[in-house]
Amino acid sequence: MPYLTNKSTGFPAWYTISFLGSLGILNTFAMCFNFNIMFYRLVKAPINTYNNETDENFSDCPQVMDSNMTDETNNHSEFTWDFKTQRVVLESFFYGFCLSQIPAGFSSDVYGGKWPFGISVLVTALACLLIPSAARTSNGALISVRVVQGMAAGISVPSINTLLAKWVPKLERSSHSAFILNGIPLSNVYTYIIIAFLLKNEVYGSWSLFYLQGTISVVWFLFWSILIFESPEDHKFLSESEVKELRKSQDREVKIPLNIYEVPWKAVMTSTKMWALIVAHSGYCWNYATLIVDFPIYFSKVLKYDVIKSSLESSLIFVSSAVFSFSSGIIADSLRMKSYYTITTIRKIMNSFAFFVPALCLIPIPYVGCEGRFIFSLQLFANAFIGVANSGFRVTHIDMCPELAGILVAITGTFGSIFGCFAVAYNEWILQTGHSSKNWKIVFFTSAAVIYVAGMIYNFFVDSEEQEWVSDVKPVDENTEAPEKEK
After folding, report:
1. What is the pLDDT at residue 485?
2. To which H or E segment does residue 376 belong?
3. Per the structure, how many domains does the chain have?
């Protein structure tokens, strides 16, 4: 579309936002997940309080997957933490992540998304740089840094959603949303590749991962500050006619910044469609926590498979998610442009693949015993299809009300993060007596049931058309002040 071309780069103006936004999401979640991935290299296996044996020996399977588990990991371990300490350290990030999303959604929709998103990546980077020294100082210092890191990361998705609502044409929302959110699975690929390099060059040490990713993210912030503009009207290289063409491609002007005093909160929070979207996001996060947090534990503790040393192979799981995510975005936009289906039908089709296929992949795992390669294939398919959610419920917030895109995703994301924490805690409770096939069957069946029910509720109740309360959302009027509260 030549009328939207940024004359300074030769690309459509919003492509810069999509590209740097995707890199920002990638860097943010890489810095959040890197500690989880390196955890078992940094921490020695504690004693299982239930049978006085090391936890990694308490499973039904022998070494079955071309196993490369050795004592090498413990040779690099610096910390000996009991199970309670491990749990608090790993979960501390999610505590902060839950706390910041709703304030981030408010601030982004009221003041704009550029600086909240940029600062969220910068603070996450600074926290990442502090993690090595904090871990060596005390457990409390490490937990505090992880909470701050989680709070900063929680700002990222609501704020980038606000920018998408203002910049991206209506018929291209799926592909651009999928492209940006692809940064989440690709963050794991990026981290695994760096880990593979570091393991071959031991001179750098395990902590160099945190210094490298933190530094790269600080450099990213400089590019974001210079190249990104809050809205088309603020862009230095877009003419007035080009801005009008962009607004025309969105059917209407997206009224951001909005007047927070004129948001129809009652209509939003009593909407059945909104609560169905909350349920969908919650079920997604429960399943995602099982796939991302618990599957590495399953491979490590049950199948005796060293996920870190097989980092390149493990990264295929996340590559598949990114490929399916972006492909589904292109397909969804194509279906919408050709008017084959309504936007609601398109979202439900994509969401059905994203929710029901992973549920089906989880069910056979307890019955295939220790067939590691087959289990790996099931995880590969589950992660691939869960990426299709980026063209399903994850972009429904913008469809329902572009003006409230940041706030809506913050509300559903907060519930989702809480349910993700519940999933981790629930799975730990189930597995506290050991990594037996019986215990893992409960973990996998529960996750399959949760995401299946969430998918059904989304399909029955969610409508992706603009909601009736969109007309009640009012922008900021620079000539009037917000009403004072009654004394």
Report:
1. 38
2. helix 372-386
3. 2
